[in-house]
Amino acid sequence: MLNWAVRYFPILRVLKRHVVGTGLILEVGSGSFGLAHFHRGEIVGCDVNFPGVAERNMLPVRCSGTQLPFPDSSFEAVVASDVLEHVHPDLRLEVVNEALRVARKLAVFAFPCGKEAHAVDEKFLDFCRRRKLPPPSWLEEHMRYPFPEQGLLRGLGDGWKVEGFGNEQLCFHDWVNRREMSYIWNVVFRACLRFIPQLVEAGLRLADRAPFYRMILVVSRQTSQGLGENART
Which of 29, 46, 114, 144 suits a disulfide with 83, CB 3.0-4.6 Å? Predict the structure, then answer.
């Protein structure tokens, strides 16, 4: 649960700056919880599988990120958080282009980035095996492909502006992963997120320092009138 908060709290701050009012948001690769667990408004969540009951504010749509069943510019914003690393490298730009196609204003892509981040997850998998603990399903999937690089979204064209910032220090990511293997720590994390979410968010900002595990790239559609405040680099 804390792992989700680490990556979704910065995305929520971006959305607050860009999405006005009740603009509809799509999350690609949402699973049954995702952004909807932290966002008060309505979310359309798409994934190839929904293993549990979807959040009350989520409309689940079963589909692939490479073929979204929505018209162009259907959503105020599109989010793909920790999705691209699960996609074969040859298909990643297809997921990106589909997200941009259905986004009216902006898309936010968050993903573990580079060889150092991959090495941290390899270390965590080794930890699970040595302790004879069942590794999380996402961890085994992380071992299939190299992580995306920061330059993945270069060359989108003049109609898009790409800005990015780092998220989650490498050692902190490893610490959270190991703590979340414990039932007691999970209870503590859930309680803190429920009763003192603002304090947790403030604390997590301190973990957003180099070397980063994850990059968050904000891709905004450029218009003659501009799009307001952009995400900070």
Answer: 29
